[in-house]
Amino acid sequence: MKYKHLLLVILIILQGTSMADAASPEPDKSKDQSDSPAAIVAAPTITKHTLSINGKAINYTATTGYMKINDEEGKHKANIFYIAYTKDGEKTATRPITYTFNGGPGSSSVWLHLGALGPKRVLLADDGNALPPPFKVVDNEYSWLEFTDLVFIDPVGTGYSRPAKDEKPEQFHGIDEDVASVGDFIRRYTTQNKRWLSPKFLAGESYGTTRAAGLSGYLQQSYGMTLNGIILISTVLQFQTLRFGPGNDMPYWLYLPAYTATSWYHKKLSSDLQANLKKTVDEVRTWSTNEYLLALTKGDALTSTEKSAIAEKLSRYTGLSKEYILNSNLRLDIHRFTKELLRSERRTVGRLDSRFMGIDYDAAGENPDYDPSYDPVILGPFTAAMNDYVRTTLEYENDLPYEILTGKVHPWNWGTGERGYPNVAETLREAMSKNHNLKVFVANGYFDLATPFSATEYTMNHLGLEAPLHDNIHMEYYESGHMMYIHKESLVKFTQDIAKFLTSSISK
């Protein structure tokens, strides 16, 4: 295991005021609420709140609880936990609604919920670092609630979501299985809360982008549900772009621009490359897709002179020694890079966000002990915040453990990807080809080494769309990592970008 949390993050790697199912009986709170699926069905809790954004008060309703998922014969299959926020005083038929989730697989929606989109957020330092405990939850003046209603979904096995009694968990834990259960939730919520005529959006992060792309086709094909837009945050649709291994050279050249951005941040490049991040990244993009890619395709046919020249350039663009690069056969996987870049300082850099540094027990080792942008930065603050917020502010009680990011959903069924590489990019292309009004927003962090921006660019440039449809894709970049919104400056820009995107995606 290259990271202790590798199975947990894989790629993350490192997300209506109706009384739906109100007929479910109120639980006897005098009894212990065990992990039994039969013990966790209760009527949603509804609370009223006010949030101030740009000096304007927004009154909203929060609905917290379960949606019962049944099959077509009416058999109870699962209880999906959700938290929905709807702005009061708005016509639901014209008010946009955004269904949102994180990734994993195995992640709850807590990161987008309390990091960027929801009416409350975890208070962090402006650079994204965790503040000393006890942690705080504050009003989120950058909440998307200003321009869209929000429904945060925890897929089965994450958060408080669980299979129904005697239902096997694995029936929900796979690419197709996950899309089907989340898609059923979206259909039910849309129907029960009379949102079929609302402008509808999906927002997913990391593996949540895989889910969103899958849903774009599933909702359209299964239910005739047409979306206005999809928001992809730290994207992975084509897994070959990310999986290092013998015979797959694709990640090596696609990761290089993100390596360069990381080296730039830690001031490991020459002065001319340090002068301007975007200019430097553009230079490396060009070189990696030409000379470096060609060199990798030659394999063992590469001459010693050619190999030396490539190693020289890689050293210039990464800050690593030429000798180390030659010993790595010109191929730097993510774990080697994050361990080697600051080895002389006895530090490692993060995978989710390479701005952050960690300290390993063995500075001479091959792989980092942990991801310094996960354990010390976001895990503690977001876990504490969610467990407190749901009970104190939302007044919802549940004694089950809230699965923030769990490995219990594994093994994951990758479908046809078991015989190759999972790829849902074709599903997105087909959805866009059938729905010419479908817009796609893609958010990228320069310092994201889990889903690097060049890999996303490659995927978007290889969808096979006609030129007019490709104009429906909008790319934005942030000087942050996988969860770009933990960086205050990026959070502000991110919210402004999404507000513009939603407005442009709704036909007048």
Description:
It contains 15 helices and 14 strands. Strand 1 and strand 2 form a beta hairpin. The chain folds into 2 domains: 6-239 and 379-505, Rossmann fold (3-Layer(aba) Sandwich); 245-332, no CATH class. The model is unreliable at 1-34 (pLDDT under 50). It is α/β, with parallel strands linked by helices and 508 residues long. The longest helix is centred in the middle third of the chain and has 22 residues, at 277-298. The chain is globular and about 70 Å long. It has helices spanning 6-9, 110-117, 175-192, 207-223, 250-265, 271-274, 277-298, 304-318, 322-327, 334-340, 375-392, 425-434, 453-461, 467-470, 488-505, and strands at 45-53, 56-70, 76-87, 97-101, 120-122, 137-139, 149-154, 162-163, 200-206, 229-235, 348-349, 357-358, 439-445, 473-478.
Strand and helix map with partners:
Elements: H1 6-9, E1 45-53, E2 56-70, E3 76-87, E4 97-101, H2 110-117, E5 120-122, E6 137-139, E7 149-154, E8 162-163, H3 175-192, E9 200-206, H4 207-223, E10 229-235, H5 250-265, H6 271-274, H7 277-298, H8 304-318, H9 322-327, H10 334-340, E11 348-349, E12 357-358, H11 375-392, H12 425-434, E13 439-445, H13 453-461, H14 467-470, E14 473-478, H15 488-505
Parallel strand pairs: 4-7, 4-9, 9-10, 10-13, 13-14
Antiparallel strand pairs: 1-2, 2-3, 3-7, 3-8, 5-6, 11-12
